[in-house]
TrEMBL record:
Main location as per UniProt: membrane
Cardiolipin synthase N-terminal domain mapped to chain residues: 15-57
Membrane topology, as annotated: Multi-pass membrane protein
Record protein name field: PLDc N-terminal domain-containing protein
Length: 59
């Protein structure tokens, strides 16, 4: 893969993680739950996103 493709995929991944963090922050979950979800998303981006999609706060 060229450096441009890798950079584009990295940018898309960053946008997805930021979107997930914003959705968590806007959710109706408690403050501690929001903080824990955001930390999981930031420190374990791939696994965190998968777990968040499956088990995260809805709404």
């Amino acid at each position: 893969m060229g450096i441009e493709v890798t950079g584009l995929l990295g940018l898309i991944w960053l946008i997805i993680v930021i979107w997930a963090v914003v959705k968590v922050a806007q959710s109706s979950a408690g403050s501690l739950a929001k903080l824990l979800w955001i930390l999981v998303l930031l420190f374990f981006p791939l696994v965190g996103l998968i777990i968040w999609f499956l088990l995260g706060p809805k709404g």
